[in-house]
Amino acid sequence: MANAAGASGAQHADVAVVGAGFAGLYLLHRLRKAGLSAIGLESGNDVGGTWYWNRYPGARCDIQTSDYSYTWDPELEKAWTWSEKYATQPEILRYLGFVADRYDLRRDIRFGTTVSAATWDDGTQRWLLTTSSGAPVSCRYYVMASGCLSAPKPPEIEGFKDFKGEVYFTGRWPHEPVDFTGKRVAVIGTGSSAIQSIPLIAQQAAHLTVFQRTPNFALPAHNGPSPADRVEMLQKDVPAFREQARWSMAGVPLPPATDFSWQLSDAERRERFEKAWAAGDLVVMLTQLWADQAVDVDGNTLVADLLREKVRAVVKDPETAEALTPRDHPFGSKRPCLDTGYYATYNRPNVTLVNLRREPIKSITASGIRTDSRTVDVDAIVFATGFDAMTGAITAVHPISGRGGKSIAEAWEHGPQTYLGLTVAGFPNLFMITGPGSPSVLSNMMVSIEQHVDWITDRLVAMREAGFTTIEATDTAQDGWQRHNADCSMITLHRLANTWYTGANVPGKPQGVMPYTGGVGPYRGICNEVVERGMLGFRLTGPNGAEQCNDGEIVRLQPDVRLVLNLLASMNLPPLESFGAQGARDFLAQFNATRPAGRPVGEVVDGTLPGTDGPLPYRLYRPSTPGPHPIVVYFHGGGWVLGDEQSDDPLCRDLCRRTGMAFVSVGYRHAPEHRFPTAAEDSYAALCWIAGHAAELGGRPGPVSVAGWSAGGNMAAVTCQMARDRGGPQIAGQLLICPVTDCTFDRPSYVDNATGYFLTRSLMYWFWDLYCSPADRTDPRVSPLRGKLAGLPPAMVVTCEFDPLRDEGVAYAEAMAAEGVPVEQLKARGHFHSSFAMVDVVITGVGGRVQMARALRRFAGLPVEETPTRQDNTAQRPIQAAAAGAAD
Ligand code: NA7
């Protein structure tokens, strides 16, 4: 309990909490149990937060209530039973009231009180809050539990004040019932609030006119009792269910789909879709169809098309159906809605849809709404126009002034900057629950709220025990977190839509994906890691000069690379080299069998070509476009020991699709059976044969390009030198992806990345030993960096930050450039040696592969700006362009 007013007249507390919704109530409970005094400040006259204000007809949660509940007290879980699959607003409000009573939380809350300013005092190291009623508050820690969708957007339509009829806002609905019987009503907006309320308003009103700017995707909720299978799953093992939710991607215990859309037939995809449709569950439709639905434009279009069919099937008037059909954003990139009878409502004679894309609103008049082509007279207007989301409740409600008097609105002038979505550099002892930069609105809010409340309370307790009284994020940590967020946002499709997730719904608001898109479970792991690594990225201070600052960035890897490496680490595999050559080959074959299959190309043909010592296998990938196509001779990776002409299949398919060029992947012979220089000579022989037989292969005669990854990059570099010195064939260009170029192991990347990134230094030693005796290692046919570099074909050299081979790749690129060879470098930040080969696992590699495809097309003299497939999901929209490709 907070102390009574002190001498200054201020009420003193350890912690002040703004908001008495789900977040604020749980926080007050935890703080009290931890022995910290707390005061809650709530502008509403009771608990409830979002659920206190949003009382519009039809308001319900759209995450199943079995998941939309507190999980921190097993007794509470037993004491409350929800009556429906998706509870109504009144029932959720009753639940929050029940919780407030059960834990006696109201006594710590000042209701009907808004904070008018919050100022950090460096002298006392406390926050001073001025409030609309009661004494000011002096607190050590200030926590914004103020919600993500709690600052309604002001009506930004001209003439609003002239309207003489009734005006309602869904986000500030009156407490007494509103009766629309016999009235002409307008609803502006078609987001969740509108889609929930429109069917009910239409039942009452004499006439309802809906003003729609952007049609949204909506699925039927199929509300009713909680589905039996879900109840059974929960009841069978409540703690396991909850734990699974905490480590899931969206905060709901559903493992992600693993099949890719191109592995399923049309009938199989439709069957999955219809099952999800019948489930009436947003998370199911968003995550359970196929693995690429949320990360790839093509995979997403397949779902979106099926959803669009459903609109046409219900809405009878074709023009209205078309106007209601979303076409300008991928499914899930804008918050989709759950509805009950929404589309059917447009078949009622008393409902009209006005398509604002065709006839924008000009103004509101005394009697109604005027568009470009008509005036609609109404008795009431319902603004369902949404919120200044994520940041509004922090920047727009009251000034928050941190160190040096700087306001948070100034600090966020170009968009929210946070560390972990929990704290802000320059604002000591300020916390946000589900702030921007945390999973928040892209998750089941209950899971995210509880995680934040627990994390903050545990930190405050730990600080008390260690004698610290202030905590503040460092600039380095915060900048790193911004970069990580931008990296994450390249994985999903959220950046491709104009939504409140990106700030696009509020005129003049800076744009960028605000919620963390890397998933709830990974995010939880990162927050835990911050603690395990000694509060990495935070400066802690206390009385008598106590100070601790363990500065740094918590995630430097690309988010998907981090997941892959964590997964590999959890498997605790023995080093690859300990299997022996054959054992390692078997392991790799097994590993490759579990990876996602490559995407379809026009044609795949296996064949053999004559090598120096007998036939060598090859695999030809032809694009689906009419040929002949320019040819790329491709050399696979595997340290001269592992792999074959099929082992880089997904990468060859991907580059074939992106370039519209034919790829011939060569099966050169391997060590230790065939040591140096067999691989180099085989590769050169294959190159000569392919160049000489281009037409037979369906290729365009003339210069070919070469490409290769890892040891294959070595082959590509080496064959370019051999072709120059041995009279051909003519090579148009070389794409070297993480190539081996030199036999020394003393460059910094060999030291920095010796272990932990799959390709280890010791594995490279082993490869070298099997392939090449020390006496031969300086031969340019294995160490091309030691060869003559002038006169080589144009090159693109790709290197990855966390790769032992990074520096020798860079050295080769620089050395070639110094000799006058045109060289393009891609230094891929946050990537590891296998990033670009793991095509549909390391999604953040897309930008890099787009760049590689452009280089190959340039080598072949093809137009570069033309992107052959829609998979280039980085090229859709300039937003977040700074993060594109995650390259330097
Ligand atoms: P939303 O989802 O932000 O929806 C607001 C709607 O209002 C949306 O259709 C907007 O169109 C429309 N809008 C906003 N401003 C205007 C103006 N000036 N003129 C015409 N139309 C406008 O808010 P909700 O309250 O429905 O839902 C918020 C979240 O609560 C929801 O996502 C769930 O998470 C629960 P736009 O799409 O911007 O073109």
UniProtKB/TrEMBL annotation:
Its cofactor is FAD. Residues 632-834 form the Alpha/beta hydrolase fold-3 domain. The keyword Flavoprotein applies. Residues 864-888 are annotated as: Disordered. Pfam families: Abhydrolase_3 (PF07859), Pyr_redox_3 (PF13738). Belongs to the FAD-binding monooxygenase family. This is Steroid monooxygenase. It comes from Vineibacter terrae.
